[in-house]
């Protein structure tokens, strides 16, 4: 029997992930991409000796990329290696301020404390709040599909509904930031 066909529009990371998953499920997959190369926002610009990230610099959730390789029966380490850096990245501001984003939270909070008007305590408070929002929403929005009825009947979803008040849903990011930090 011929394989069922799947057509995917766009070869950004989402399209590539969908293509791998459909292919593993037995579909004959065709991916259409408007750009000359795959990757979407995940692209780089090379100018002389310099390389710039056109989009993401931070590899936020490597476990999901590993998962795709494993689903396809491949060992991710045969293709690329990544390691956690002590210094995640540096932020450069127009007024000359440079901030180092240390992976270690205490070090990062001290960096903010020393170089801005915000305190280490405020950073810890903000990160704690972000962690809570992540914990409440992760199982519902990242781990499950909102397109499936059974996701709404899952215990994790119910738990999150009861903790809805914790996710700060009724104000913008800017308003929340103003609340947490001196601006
Ligand atoms: C400046 C910047 C910094 C970022 N930093 C980070 C970071 O540090 N860490 C992180 O995790 N995320 C970061 N992100 C977010 C991350 O880049 C995106 O969430 C992710 O790349 C989106 O992938 P995607 O496949 O959903 O969409 P896209 O990457 O936008 O891919 C969509 C693809 O579809 C193609 N396409 C669209 N319409 C058509 C069509 N009709 N026909 C054919 N092809 C089509 C497009 O050409 C594109 O290649 C950043 C984003 C930006 C812009």
Distance between the termini: 64 Å
Average pLDDT level: 92
User: Rough shape?
Assistant: globular
**Uncertain residue segments:** none
Number of strands: 6
What's the number of helices?
Answer: 7
Measured on Cα atoms, how large is the radius of gyration?
21 Å
Summarize the structure.
The protein has 183 residues and is an alpha+beta fold. 42% of the residues lie in helices and 16% in strands.
Describe this structure in words.
This protein is α+β, with helices and mostly antiparallel strands. It has a domain at 117-183. Helices cover 42% and strands 16% of the residues. The chain has 7 helices and 6 strands. The chain has helices spanning 13-24, 62-71, 105-115, 120-142, 149-153, 155-162, 173-180, and strands at residues 5-9, 28-32, 44-47, 50-53, 87-92, 98-102. The strands form 3 sheets. The chain has a two-stranded parallel ribbon with strand order 1-2. A two-stranded antiparallel ribbon has the order 3-4. Helix 3 (105-115) crosses helix 4 and helix 4 packs antiparallel against helix 6. The longest helix is centred in the C-terminal third of the chain and has 23 residues, at 120-142. The protein is globular and about 65 Å long. The model has no long low-confidence stretch (mean pLDDT 92). Bound molecules: flavin-adenine dinucleotide. Residues 9-15, 32-35, 40-42, 55-58, 60 line the site of flavin-adenine dinucleotide (FAD).
